[in-house]
Amino acid sequence: KAKMQQERRVKRAENVEGDFWVDSTCIDCDTCRWMAPATFTRANGMSAVTAQPAGHVERVRAMQALLSCPTYSIHTDSRTAQELSEAQVGLPALVPGVPGVFHCGWHDVKSYAATSYLIVRPPAQGGNILVDCPRYNPVLARNIAALGGVSHIFLTHKDDVGDHDKWARHFNALRTMHQSEVRAGTAGVEVQLRGEGPWALDGTPLPAPATASGSSSSSSSRGSSS
Fold first, then answer.
1. What is this structure's pTM?
2. Which phi and psi angles does 22 have, rounded to 5°?
3. pLDDT of 215
4. Among residues 105, 59, 93, 65, which one has the least CA distance to residue 79?
5. DSSP type of residue 79
């Protein structure tokens, strides 16, 4: 732990000078690079700030990447309360071109930085589906509640479960996962799928073109996520 704390203070030499920077604990997960590509790129096997954010919008995006970094490897030497507030309020973020599907942010190192999505559906269609789980955070929980909360949690793979237990308790949500992916930490998942599908969740199809044995994908009439 002491070594990790010491490493966190080491600014990577690949960072350009300025407020935002990445330390040497980066695990090269790519999260920041696709969330704020104008600021972060890959340099010598890890992420680095290769261009400081230009303007308010880019600073907020960089701040969202900071919040979503699963290893807390991104830092800023200065920030305003407005920037932090806008970054927090902006997650979950609507996925461009996919109505009703939101990127949750707040990636979890326990899920190897896997991306979690919220599929927003009317209550009459069974309510919202959380596809895989981000790191639990009360600010994110409030924002998800404002979008209608979570009725179902669909876990696609054993490595992408994140803080599923905390999210399930918070929203009293029903969890679904393929039985072959269940491990000790997910033994309490309420619905365990078997076979090769396809399945349906309140009429929403859950086909299973697997990326790994037992893993599943979720689709919605308002968008899709895998």
1. 0.89
2. -115, 140
3. 61
4. 59
5. -
Domains 2-89 and 93-225 share a fold: no
Fold of 2-89: Alpha-Beta Plaits (3.30.70)
Domain regions of the chain by residue span: 2-89, 93-225
The pair of structure tokens assigned to 218 is 């979720």
Q: Is residue 177 exposed (0-12), middle (13-18) or buried (19+ Cβ within 10 Å)?
A: buried
Residues of the chain with pLDDT under 50: 209-212, 220-226
Distance CA 88, CA 64 (A): 7
d(CA 69, CA 81): 19
CATH number, domain 93-225, options 3.30.420.10, 2.60.120.1140, 3.60.15.10, 3.40.50.1440: 3.60.15.10
**Integer Cα distance of 167 and 70 in angstroms:** 17
